[in-house]
Amino acid sequence: MIDEFREQGYPFVYSTSLVGARLLVLAEPESGTPQNVVNQILQPYGLVVRPDSGVLLIVRTKKESEGARPGAGQAPTASSAAAQNTIETVIVSTSRYAISREIAASKFSMDQRTIQSMPDVGEDPIRVTQRLPGAAASGGSAVAHFRGGEKGDVGIMLNGQWLFDPFHIRDYQSIFSAIDARAIEGVEVYTGGFPVRYGDRMSGLVLMDSIEPEESRHSEIGVSVFNTSLLTAGTKGRKSWLLSARRGNLDLVIDPKFGRPSYFDVFGEFAVELTPWAHLSFNGLYADDDIKLVLETEASERDEISSDTRNAQFWVRLDSRWSDVLSSTTVLSVVDYSNTRIGFANDREKVVAAVADWRKIKQLGFRQDWLWKSSGRHWTQWGLQGTHSKARFVYDANAEYFGLPALFVNQPSTVTRTADAAPRGASYAIYVSDRWRLSERTIMEWGLRWDDQTYTNLSSDSQLSPRLSLLFRPSKSTELRVSVGRYFQSQPIQSLQVEDGITHFWPAQRADHLILGVRHLAKNDTSWRLEVFHKNIGRVRPRFENLFDPLGLMPELQPDRVFIAPGRARARGVELSADRTIGRFAWWGSYTWSLVTDRIAGVDVPRSWDQTHSVQGGIDWHTDTWSFSAAASAHTGWPTTDLQLLEVGADLNGDPIFIAVPGARNAVRHGSYVSIDLRLSRKFDLSRGRLTAFVEVSNLFNRRNVCCLDWDVNETDAGDTVLERGEDYWMPLLPAIGVLWEF
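The structure corresponding to this sequence follows.
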């Protein structure tokens, strides 16, 4: 029956080691979509259909893939290998289905198990992307730079909806995402070269879909150092549901004198199959932060900030199949977001400052995507998107500088800054793409996208983005890919830079990508990938950075704050990676050489996250009960700036007058960054369900990876005034333990 559906054009894909000729239909399936019918047939064999990259992939169910063995009275398994926790490598070589393959370069996929086994802080599905080639990250934030781009250049989508700022502790490095890794099937990541149906981002994408319940009811309760979580999911007839709720535990484990980082998030989905040709789902994501952070606890040097954030997102998605060749996806969404930040510093040897920052954004969105598969050789996609936004910003801050901060060149002794802005307007987009199988070995896709924004009040700022991708297969195990295209990114309405005194929007930035890649699957099931990328960035949006300390609680009021307005930027590099994921022992590794610069006043200056050499690697070993993983990250230290203390004269009393003058921006570097992380877990079968206990260690050797420079003025015994340099560091050794009960 599966092959009959394939003949009708449904892209079912399977390995013959899972679906053999001896599998029989044990019971007459009920009517439904082809996917539902096949799921009913495969259920007794521990198999399930999962949509993946345009195909319907037949894989083992979670229960079978994690080692459950059939006992007396249980249904037969598809093969004796079903008791092993493996990941099948499947190459779709049949020409009939080759058109469904993803042909864009720079795409990576990680399933749920990979995310959970990776030794990353908090099992964060966004943080795990930092392990990919071309990513630059400190480990202190969940957000990464992709191929030289800024952190905000990466878009995040869940169940067809672009997520609005889905992070916790957003006012201090966005340490965690608001997405529960156990609620999603996995992540698909583009580090460049993505097709035109995705737009308004220059560097990369993180795409996620929630899990599809396979049982009538499944529940999980987890407790760890980082959070307490509850997940329940189930299916009944044509309906299914999923509910995930998490509470952060950091406020329970850190000393209260350093603050109160309290946060939680809730994600829910209810789906119903209206007809065999229409699937409707209701989705909601709510994140709530009540954060208080204290860097200096002494009353005479108190440095404190409080942040209260409410982020509610709700969307409805309708998937429709109009015929065997025409389908569509429609998404209606609403966002209600508010953030209040109150902070003060009371150090009369450096700075006395206060800030009150209030923001509120509301959005209504519509998105529709169409797919027309005219034949096995050709398909066309098109769509339109629209979002109406209104925002309100009220900002008030003041600062007075003493000691060394008052000596910075061109630094006023006091700063007062207020802003009140209420932008509103819309953003629109339409796109079309055409994919052709030119031959049995060659697929080409071209696309064109148009974007425009009205809330910026900029005339003639619409953007046109042409893109082209080519896939050529010289053999069944080797693929060559070429992607070239133009990518625009407008300034989001929530990113108005009122904290730095700017109340207008900048024109959309532009990036031109050229990517050449080759992938090869060796006979030992090792996958090799080599990619060369070149990215030119024009109309670079001016930005503000802190030269020495990016971790300040009120960065906009620090004396090392500088305005950066490049004429253009450029990123180029080479990525070599390999992995083997079949069997109980898996490994992966990558090396990246890159150069990322801003062109300022005719000089190429390294961006603050430029890392010439970067190495990533890891291993994963597992049995039916034990699992062990280790990962290592190392890269060239990020650029930084030096500081000099110059004597420029004397006052009326004859005492010397000094000024602090920064050196050439990003002309020196911190030491190399190295971190080794481990995770060990053990599963226990209970009378009801299963318990998993784990221990995890980040930065195992407690390496002092420098993040920041701390300067101070002191006087020697001889009476000379000197400048002293200190260093602060990214995360130290961080152990964590936790348990998860599944039932």
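The radius of gyration is 27 Å.
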